[in-house]
Amino acid sequence: MKEQVKPVVIGTVGAGYAAHLHGNGYEKVSGVPIRLKTVCDLNLTLANEVKERYGYEQAISDFDALLADPEIDVIDIVTPPFLHCNMAAKALRAGKHVICEKPLTGYFGAPGEENVGATPKSQMYKAVLETMEELKQVMATTDKKFMYAENFVYATPVQKAAEIIRNKKSKILFMKGEESLKGSSSPVAGKWNKTGGGILVRTGTHPLTGMLFLKQQEALARGEVITVKSVSADVGVTTACLTEHEHRHIAARPEDVEDYAAVTVTFSDGTKCLTIASDAVLGGTKNYIEVYSNDSALMCNITPTDLLNTYFLDEDGLEDTYISEMLPAKLGWNKAFVSDEIIRGYMGELQDFMETIAYDKVPSSNFELAYQTTKIMYAAYLSAEEGRRVDF
What domains does the chain contain, in order, with CATH numbers? Predict the structure, then answer.
């Protein structure tokens, strides 16, 4: 039986979509007492909406005031990515643990820079590594935890696959992971200076981090040191050939980013993983990781699954019923999302982070994974632009 611990006091910065994902996760944390004290956003209207929905004690607009509160144990960063590293460094210096949403960071352009996507990827790669190294140096000065909010690590099929790999001490030979969909509803998804990249950064980061986690689990179980040896990639814009009428079902509107990416990572033991991401996939969000080892094959179907198949001739009474992500209608046959927050890892993520703080343990998703994923993604952009393999 675990010892009694004091409540973990949480301060959240950012009141957008991810604040609701985390708020839903906090509602389901068990075994660790938590206290949602403060939500902070420049838009106080949004902050107050989050406050009322999840029961935070107060809403403020001053980030420095959030950091100065001696009661707050952890700063949960759910702001746009260009703010992540700076806010994380400030929080760590203030003596707070940090939860940081994905991606860790990216290249968003220099002041006054136009058409950021045209910036040489070698320049982007160098700048991103420098930003992460600066944060790494701050982390070396503190004993506070850094927890990387990558839900694919906590997706229930991925967690089960990790358990199997640890128990069998399997040697993973090849993995393939994908998150594809029909584009984003965000008006800034097509702008490099707002997103730090295209579909690779927006969605490809999920299966990539999940596969890096599984390879990490293999190495720990087998007592091996496995590193990333090289990255090779192809990215592009596949929807540019469409007429406006042909484009009507696809939401992707890339301006200076890609809508397709395929990234191959080669590990130091010669094994591989392939990440696929596309903004031109109709039929709902497609999330999976396939693992092929010397003694097993593991198919991690995250969405869609076959837990509940639905068939409707009309949508009467279904206006407020969530069936599936990225489907324009609920008619006909669909694969309904069931226990989505659990299967896709949002609940497990926050449970692990609260236990990490309360019981001083190592989180499953940490700074090492955040750093490695970001480095690989920008090495992929460099590889695609220069038409060569990038060696680490």
Answer: 8-151 (3.40.50.720)
